[in-house]
Write a structure and sequence with these properties.
single chain; Leucine-rich repeat, LRR (right-handed beta-alpha superhelix); globular; Monooxygenase; two-stranded antiparallel sheet; alpha/beta; 11-stranded parallel beta sheet
């Protein structure tokens, strides 16, 4: 090992994807320890990692060429000790100048002050806060304004987000290609339309609500009845669309996407209440590039305890005839008779 040229060692190290294997490799020799640290591109921090500033400084200064960092405290309990906090983001940003992808999951002690340090990461392109209860719209707006290369943004179960000024800014001045919003009660379908011109550049969009969509009177906190606005929006670049657990109306909310998309390759609809079959047929006929279709639709109530599938043979024939590139089809129906 000691006689191998460094490029070959680096190639070997980059082919090892399991963190425990990399850690074991580092114990073989000082040279491997140094080469592995120089070429490691991804790191996961969570329960069991010493969150003190001194320990994190030592950790991140060793792996100074990181591209991707995930801070994940899923399953954390007080017995695990303290979590990293906002000061930890400052340490990360100072010692990892190449950082381009950051995920924050179940980080209860990272707030807007922590996000305010992200502009030091000049190459940051992807940010994924998930269950970050201390992060507010103010912190997200700072990121939107300061991280000018941001192209991927996921916002999942962030309960303190209560306005979308940041989304309007990203729509006007940003370059988002991927936007995911899930289980954020403070963001409505109508709020998302304020993304405005940003829809033109978006290639992947996902929106999901944790609502009581299966009840006879489903509830969707993102639905705003009678909201007045125009639909003069373009989404010609959208290739991947995923909507789940939302209520739609012909002139309200995100339903407009199904009538505007022409270049979809992936379509995922799960319990989107209010869709009509003729809309699905029209969508299939327009989107000839579809490769993957997954539909999990709420059955239609006929009478008494009888239900029928939301789609008939007509829509399936349109899908088969109009989408020659189709590779994956997943159709899920419940409470419907086999015939």
């Amino acid at each position: 090992m000691e006689d191998l040229p460094e490029p070959l060692l680096a190639d070997i190290i980059e082919r090892i994807t399991v963190s425990s294997d990399l850690n074991s490799l580092c114990l073989v020799s000082k040279r491997l320890y140094a080469v592995e640290a120089e070429h490691r591109r991804a790191l996961r921090v969570g329960c069991g990692v010493d969150p003190t500033t001194e320990a994190l400084t030592s950790l991140f200064s060793r792996f100074s060429n990181l591209w991707k960092v995930e801070i994940n405290y899923s399953g954390w309990t007080p017995s695990h000790g303290d979590q990293v906090n906002s000061q930890s983001i400052l340490v990360l940003s100072h010692h990892c100048p190449l950082l381009s992808d950051l995920t924050l999951s179940f980080c209860a002690h990272i707030d807007d002050d922590g996000l305010s340090y992200l502009p030091y990461c000049k190459k940051l392109r992807s940010l994924r806060p998930s269950f970050a209860p201390a992060v507010t719209s103010t912190g997200i707006f700072r990121v939107a304004v300061s991280c000018c290369y941001l192209s991927v943004f996921h916002l999942v179960d962030c309960i303190a987000i209560d306005n979308v000024e940041w989304l309007e800014y990203l729509g006007k001045y940003g370059s988002l290609g991927e936007l995911v919003v899930k289980d954020c009660d403070g963001i409505s379908q109508c709020d998302l339309l304020k993304f405005g011109p940003g829809w033109r550049k978006l290639q992947r969009f996902e929106f999901e609500v944790n609502g009581t969509y299966w009840l006879s009177e489903p509830r969707d906190p993102s639905y705003v009845s009678g909201y007045p606005y125009g639909y003069d929006l373009c989404c010609d670049s959208l290739k991947d669309l995923r909507l789940a657990h939302i209520i739609t109306d012909r002139e309200i909310g995100l339903r407009f996407l199904l009538g505007k998309c022409n270049t979809l390759e992936t379509l995922y609809l799960e319990y989107v209440i209010g869709l009509h079959e003729n809309e699905m047929i029209s969508l299939f006929q327009r989107c000839s590039n579809l490769k993957t279709v997954s539909l999990r639709l709420k059955p239609l109530h006929c009478e008494d305890f009888e239900y029928r599938a939301a789609l008939t043979d007509a829509s399936l024939k349109a899908l088969a005839a109009s989408c020659p590139m189709l590779q994956v089809v997943e159709l899920t129906f419940a409470f419907c008779e086999p015939d």
